[in-house]
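@channel anyone free to eyeball this complex?
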Amino acid sequence: MSSVANVADERLLIEAAQQDPSRFAELYEKNFHRVYAFIARRVHDRAEAEDLTAEVFHQALSNLGRFEWRGVPFAAWLLRIAANMLADRWQRASKILEVPAESLENADAGVDQEVERRAMLFQLVERLPDDQRLVIVRRFVEQKSVREIAQELGRTEGAVKQLQFRALQSLRTKALGKSDETLPREQTADAGAKVKH
Amino acid sequence: MNSLSVYDELDQAIGAMIANPKASSASLESGFADVLRIASDLLQLPRPDFKARLKTELEWVASARPLSSTVPLQATADANILPSLFGRDYGTYPIRRVNFATSVGLHAAAMLVTLMGVMAFKDKPKEVQPSDYVKILSDYVPPPGLHQMHGGGSGGDADKQKASTGTLLRTASEQFTPPTVIPRNEHSRLEVEPTIIAPDLKAATTDQVGDPLSKLMTPSNGIGVGGGIGSVSGGGIGDGRGPGYGPGSGGDFGGEIYRPGNGVIAPKVIYDPEPEYSPEARAAKYQGTVKLWAIIGADGRPRNLSVERSLGMGLDEKALEAVRTWRFHPATKDGQPVAVQIEVEVSFHLY
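replying in thread with the prediction:
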């Protein structure tokens, strides 16, 4: 029942965006992480993944009027655009570099579980507490060391490691649905306590 | 391993993964495998401001796009032939099909109206309707002048019979000898051709001079006096007074010039080409109205034109030139065409 309602909502959302392009922002919010995850899984480079993601949404916006609702989710249309874009890019690159044939095959727009899992993971990061999210971004996006992060935040390295641990634990729990029991037991001390190395 | 080392061990594993993302994590403790897998995925996490920046960018682009009431869902091959009709655009701006259809409709309607107008004019006999250029402003008041020549003529030498029938004779602007049917002095020392004062009649003449309206065959100069042929006086021919012909007096053709009204139906213009603009008036963008006096004869032709109110800059001449070419249904009195004098107003406007 809720699935049917979601499909109907999405159709209304698309028609609204076709009438008024400013409504496209809602479709963007719903599909950003999915498109980005799809591309990031294939290009393995953040900057390139961001460029391609931006290109996909710009193309989608400019061609939104030609989208015809046939019961296929809007995300599938976006991923088809992304797949075509990746294929074009790789075909151009293959004239200069040797690109494995399987890479081109991987550009197929199928919404696989891996993409969905990553998209959900990226969404979950946005919902982390501010201090945990900040540590995750500094550590994994900016790839700073724990010491640099600690200095920036004015906290101890142990506290930063603890925040990192808790953030990953939380993400694991929500993304994989696993309980904390499978992880090594965490110290009960406060994350802000002094930690000896 | 105490609990503090868990954070260290995880951080070390993460550090190694960041340093070499392709390295296998199989050697890690099984409890960290899922976390490190998540950590590996997080290495692809987009920059935190990227999503918001792209959203702002898209909103800006979307705001520049016009609202669309009807969205074409599928472009067909025909769209390449008439992109506007199928809702596509040539480049920067999208085009609505409804606008294209409206434009085509309006153009078709305009062409139809034009065609119908051309056909209507083509089929209709050429009859020029009265235009605003002619305005009969008032009854005729003859302008004062030294030589009023609007009467007819008559004469006679006191015969017992009225004037006999015959044709008119040569006309002239001056008369030296009045016409006679029966000459009284057959041995004059200086013969001068008899004439009447009238415009050129261009009528056939015979040897028998007389009043064309008379039915009497017996030659007679008429019962009038003073020479000529007729019943009154003046040296002309007819029933008038003077050296002309017909009723009235003073020469020229006889017959009254009427005024519209009192049983006289005003003439109606049937052909009134617009006057031309004089070059100097056009250059000066000079506009105004010229008033003319004109006699509209029983034949519908204007004559005896004179300027009542001048405009200058060559427009008076242009007005006279134009009105001379006009044609009227003549004024009528008791169903018969008669001559009337009217005031004609000729307007000059630059549009």
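from a first look: Chain B touches chain A through 46 residues (CB under 8 Å).
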